[in-house]
Amino acid sequence: MQNINNVGNYAPMEMTQLMAADSGSFKTNREYKDRLFKAIFGRDSEQSKRWRLDLYNALNGTSYTDPDALSLTTIENVIYITMKNDISFLIGSQMNLFEQQSSFNPNMPLRGLMYFAQLYQMYLSKQEKDLFGTTLVKIPTPSFIVFYNGNRKLPDVSYQKLSDAFEPTGSGEGFEWTAKVLNIGGEHNKELHKKCRALYDYTSYVNQVKKNLRKKLPVREAVEEALEYAIRENLLDGFFKNQKMEVLNMSLTEFDQEQYDRNRRREGIDEGVLLGKLEAARNLLKMELLTHEQIAQAVKLSLEEIEKLAAEPAVQRT
């Protein structure tokens, strides 16, 4: 068993509210409510503390036994980087950030870097450390884990690196920030699930919802059936039964948002395809090698759309 007496050397960070001015581009309420992953692993209840400790031990091969050894440092409502599920905590000399994602996001290293900058700023202020002195300031080691349970095919473990975003490519030698992505969906990371029952139960519930959605059940029906399944199986030691309405509301919000995100991406793809067709049609019109009917057939646009393009000044010959 590990010695955790040194935990007291790090004062727990206070919860803070970081509010940003609304730019006007978002009209919905940006104070995100807890989502299911955070409700299970990121609260200050005795259950949540125990599950959080179990998850940390499973990830790190440690054997901590005191749930209070993990000091929550979660920053609430970090609007400018829209971290919605983040759970951060300090244990020993390690600063941890857990983020659950159902939609693949390649910008996690940058988001994590911004988040950790806030955590370290708070930590240094709390410890009254002087960054301008001649003594090296020691800080807790960062650990950034992304739990992914979306539909994209990812290996059990993958890494996203900040340097992938550097422009030009290959610049910034010697500087890196990494997000470790763990695919917890489907049959992935079975050993991790075996080591952490809470993660297994959470994933079982989410998988059941997605299974129901693949059967074309409406979102509410899919969630309600999965919730009944979780209650029957006593997942999370009665959590789903005791928090039934809250879990229902959180799940409906999450899966409605996933559907919205998928539709938005689909619309973006469709718009890009249409723009490509229009540009190809314009080029063919300028070449004057095909009739309007042939161009319409070639690019799969209507004859009426081709006629409109042909009337554009940029297309007509001077």
Question: How would you describe this protein?
Answer:
There is one protein chain. The chain is α/β, with parallel strands linked by helices. The protein is 45% helix and 11% strand. It contains ten helices and six strands; from the N terminus they run H-H-E-E-E-H-E-E-E-H-H-H-H-H-H-H. It has a six-stranded mixed β-sheet with strand order 1-2-3-4-6-5. Helix 3 (108-127) links the parallel strand 3 and strand 4 (141-148). It is flat, with a radius of gyration of 25 Å. The N and C termini lie far apart (84 Å).
Ends distance: 84 Å
The general outline is flat
Number of E-state strands: 6
- Report the portion of residues in β strands: 5-15%
Number of helices: 10
Q: Residue share in helices? A: 40-55%
For the biggest β-sheet, the strand order reads 1-2-3-4-6-5
Low-confidence stretches: 1-32, 79-83
Radius of gyration: 25 Å
The overall average pLDDT, rounded, is 81
| Biggest sheet details | 6 strands, mixed
H/E element sequence: HHEEEHEEEHHHHHHH
Structural class per helix/strand content? alpha/beta
